[in-house]
Amino acid sequence: MRKILFASSEVHPLIKTGGLADVSASLPIALAQQDQDVRIILPAYRQCLEALDKIETVATIKLDGFHAPIEILQSTLPNSEVPIWLVNSPEHFDREGGPYGTTEAGDWEDNAARFTLFSRAIAAVAMDQSGLDWQPDILHCNDWQTGLAPALIANESDRPATVFTIHNLAYQGLYSQDVFEALDLPPSLWHSEGVEFYDLMSFMKGGLIYADHVTTVSPTYADEICTYEFGYGLEGLLSHRADQGRLTGILNGIDTDEWDPERDSYIDKNYSIKTIRHKSANKEALQKLFSLPEKEGVLLMGTISRLVSQKGVDLTLDAVGKLLDAGENIQLICLGSGEASYEQDLRVLRAQHPDKVGLHIGYSEELSHQIEAGSDVFLMPSRFEPCGLNQLYSLRYGTLPVVRNTGGLADSVVDAAGANLKNGFSTGFKFEAATAEELEETLLRAIGLFKHPRIWRKVMVTAMEQDYSWEKSSKAYQVLYDNLLNN
Known about the structure:
alpha/beta, Rossmann fold, nine-stranded mixed β-sheet, six-stranded parallel β-sheet, globular
């Protein structure tokens, strides 16, 4: 049995902005089910304290650079037996809004201080300096908000082995040197082979430099971040770590209990591979919900996304807009929020085609399940996608993903064309260049295949047969942990 401290700035269902939260719940649960001693450490956001029933104070610690003592609270991750430790500093975490800021005002101005405190608390627990009488064998940190923790313990004796996972390299936690100095961090960290990055402080680089091993969330993304296009200035460092054998891509899994069309309580009618015909009832229910004509023969396209450039929202708008103007027999339902210009463009598209476009600005867990179950295809034309989870949910629900051939999308979707289609390997549709023209051509391929129900159903069945559970991915992490400790 390995003792693993899993550090993350968000964990579903307590606090969530994206896929990091899903991974930070599902992976620890999967590891615990395989008899590992896993503890999650998370900031004590107001939303977390409100969501948890039983919370007790188990330690009080004094951290360098912060005047007030910090409490460690203990509870249990909902729907599991995994212990969760919450770093309680009301000054830093007890506030309205998301974990990093508010929609209206953007990021909190003190995020550097907030996540420095969090990293210091992680380091104290990892070194058994918090009074919890428990020290991990492995400290597993995730994304920039935890990046300083491996740096703070790198030179300590008897420290745990450290793993740092990149979920999205585009978000690095960059701050000025003045901020670095104000945080009372060790001056020895400020150099080109430390956290200094072109005269800025990089939280992300702390994890990349000082962790014993770096992982990311798909094999293809691990290759991509070593290139200029995807490396955000860190490609040289990442290539070096790859050459050392210290960079690994492990595809994320999904929670197959929560995302299961046979037992999903959110959807209109449950179904499985054997009862795949019942999927059509969910399509009708989704069309009715958005006041669209309830037609079986129309290709219903769903998308659930942050409305930002990375997700290729502009490609969807352009390609789908042209197909709608051309009178193609399609419908689009979109759930998401983000940049105001994209939200407005989607409203305009809906106004132009009220009988073919449905739109919900915001997020709804219930609606996300209904879109996955009711759509025929799922649009995910991301410019880059470290892993992606919605295409994995789509496969499980027999909703064929339409994706760009990048990152985890490349690793999880097999294009419905040529030998793949002939030999029964296809699970969706892929295109190469991040252009509206290529997306439009790919959607026309999907429209064409949809007119052949027997072939379409065969691809649906193949998609649903894929296994992207956390069991496989968690075993890959256990092998990594064992290799680190043995070496």
